[in-house]
Amino acid sequence: MNERQALLERALGHHQAGRLGQAQALYREILAQEPGQPDAQHFLGLLGCQLGQYDAGLALMEQSLAARREPAYLNNLGNMLREHGRLEEAIARYQEAVRLQVDYAEAHNNLGNALREAGRAQEAMYCCARAIELSPQSAQAYNNLGNALQDLGELDAAAVSYGKAIALAPGYAQAYSNLGNVQRARQQMDAAIGSYRQAIGLQPDLHVAHHGLGLALRATGDLAGAAASLRASLKLNTADVINSYATVLRDQGELDEAASYYRKAIALSPDDAQAYSNLSGVLRRQQQFAEALSMSDRAVALSPEQAQAWNALGNAQHSLDDLPGATRSYRRALELDNDDAGAHHNLALVLLKQERTDEALVHCRRALALEGPNASMLVNLGDTLRAQGDIDSALDAYRDALTLDPAEPLLVYQRLLFCAAGTHTVTPERFIDDARRCGALMAATARPYRHLPTERTRTGALRVGLVSGDLRQHPSGIFLENVLDHIDARRIELIAYSTCAKHDEVTDRLKHKFGLWRDVHDLGPEALARRIHDDAVDVLVDLSGHTQFSGLSAFAWKPAPVQVSWLGFFATTGLSQIDYFLGDRHVLPETEEAHFVERPWRLPDSYLCFTPPRESVSVGPLPMLSNGHVTFGCFGKLIKIGDNVVELWSRMLHALPDSRLFLKALGLEHPGAREATKARFAAHGIDEGRLILEGPSPRALYLDAYNRVDITLSPFPYGGGTTTAEGLWMGVPVLGMKGDRFVTHICESLLHTAGLGEWIAEDEEDYVRKALAYAGDPGKLNTLRAGLRAQVLNSPLCDAKRFARSLESAFEQMWSRYVAGADKTLEES
Description:
Blueprint: H1 3-17, H2 20-33, H3 38-50, H4 54-67, H5 71-83, H6 87-100, H7 105-117, H8 121-134, H9 139-151, H10 155-168, H11 173-185, H12 189-202, H13 207-219, H14 223-232, H15 239-251, H16 255-268, H17 273-285, H18 289-302, H19 307-319, H20 323-336, H21 341-353, H22 357-371, H23 375-387, H24 391-402, H25 409-420, H26 428-444, E1 462-468, H27 475-485, E2 492-498, H28 505-511, E3 516-519, H29 525-534, E4 539-542, E5 562-565, E6 580-584, E7 599-603, H30 623-627, E8 631-634, H31 643-655, E9 660-664, H32 671-682, E10 691-694, H33 699-704, E11 711-713, H34 722-729, E12 734-737, H35 742-753, E13 760-761, H36 764-775, H37 778-793, H38 800-828
Parallel strand pairs: 1-2, 1-4, 2-3, 4-5, 5-6, 6-7, 8-9, 8-11, 9-10, 11-12, 12-13
Helix pairs in contact: 1-2, 2-3, 3-4, 3-5, 4-5, 5-6, 5-7, 6-7, 7-8, 7-9, 8-9, 9-10, 9-11, 10-11, 11-12, 11-13, 12-13, 13-14, 13-15, 14-15, 15-16, 16-17, 17-18, 17-19, 18-19, 19-20, 19-21, 20-21, 21-22, 21-23, 22-23, 23-24, 24-25, 25-26, 27-38, 31-36
């Protein structure tokens, strides 16, 4: 061996051992002795690339090839070009290497890798297979073949190939990580987690394995484990890794931190539409709706063919109440991917808000068909069916949702209870069972306040808090307004807790009737309870029950010594922390006390006091005198008109062949709801020409519509409350049904209090008999119509002063009972 060859051997030894400075000095010494020596040039260039000096290094490697076209040199140059991002040049060098040496297994393998990176997976597979043919013991070649097969979607074959790589090299961490990727893609999460952990055990700093493990753990619901693993993978510093970590933070509710990482992902990859869409979702949850919309617009601009970007844009528009815009965006998402269950679900939500229930139902069912059982989709299905009046099917959907551990089970229970109270298919016994479960759910996380004996004595007015989401143009507002004018501030100090942000002119009038008004719609149950407790409320009154915008959950904290439910709901709350349910002898008969968790408290007249409308609408003449036929009417919600009601009303219409039925309700302004209603009556032989179907209208026009009705029909078991009072005010008598539960008794209470007890039917046969008898006596109807408004106005139903005295006495007596009970407890202790 000559001296120059010895120097080269020493230089290569230092190079291979990582002593790059010493290797570099020796390569330069050789080139000083023999300028252009190809080996020294090549390896000095390789060393330069390894030090990040690519331009100089690659130039030296190219120069060495001019002197000697060595396959190994071509292979090394290909590696450095690929590492430097010059992929097509790298492929060309590998191809030349294998042309010069057809059995060069390593070059075939490297060519396969480069082709795969260039998106040429089919060619990559052939190259890797050739490498294996030439070197059957090459674990790396099997690993690379697995990568190519995975890219081609051949997951089973890819798993086999990774398995062979591991069998040949049991310590091959990257192969375990790649196997985990395949298993995760095949939804074999437990196996994938095992493979990733094996990879990390072999090579703790293998960040891609940490990333894969995090994704697999997230898929199993282990968010804490996923966050830890993805945090360990952040050293990769790529947009997709940062995006994944941000998504887990989002899932954990760490919205500020998630938004920060999404922004980092965008900074690294400004054209990543997915990151913009994800950031938009977080901003939406933070109620930063304008910026969320901006991010979604950017995502769509970057990727107009990406369904998810359009879906995110629809979400942002939905948050800003741009329902037409959201509808268009969701439809565009579905044009791009009609199998996107989430987009179908979202579209159903906005269609329902637009009261396009037929279309909403189609997309609800499509979402469930694609996704399978899903709690939120079932809730949406229930809401849509309820809006169409199909209460029993809605109940089935809500019950199915509850079996799937929904994110907000309390909201599902409250929907279920609202529906269940109004259908004859749910017995009072089953209802109270469901209500108790709901009450237990509200109480599970509450820590009730203790009310000390020193707080029990009052020297001034009793502080009474009213908690409601309906202090506006709503039945609760209608039945409250006149009463509040007559509350004696020396006896009762009223405090309002408004749990809904919606305000109107009724709200403005009501505000002046309270000593203190608090807008609390942004407070959760605990914070609301604390506010009430700090206000030293003596008697707290729930006016919403299980309805929208309810503050009922705060009552589980027992913020006031005495708690009552009144007016806003028509069945038990199921909450044992509420002491009383305020009603009257008609709605709370002794025989039905078992229907309630709360103790009944009965006012002497009706538990409702009607506020006459401000609109000046006169009572018109009896329509049948000019029409020549009777017109029955019902202006209540469609959900009140169950199949049993349709069947009975159809019998009446058949018995009076010239009669008409006038239905006026929210929803009937839409063709779909009108057609569905016609079909329900057509099933009982009633021609659509005998139905008058109208949607809602401004209040004065709504009241005037009663002048086209001869007799109002109250449905059952969910009878009319506000519509009964309004019908009577407009001179139209109401035919009601005696029931077996509070919600049906509401109509009875109003009729008894107005002096029309004879208009209450004992059963279905009596209901039909009375309808036919009254319809057959126009003279009696005409006389009744002429004097009915005065009769109602002079009855206890409109005597707000009398009602206010009864209400004050009820609250004071409840307080006295509490004080007596506290005294007794003190004596016993």
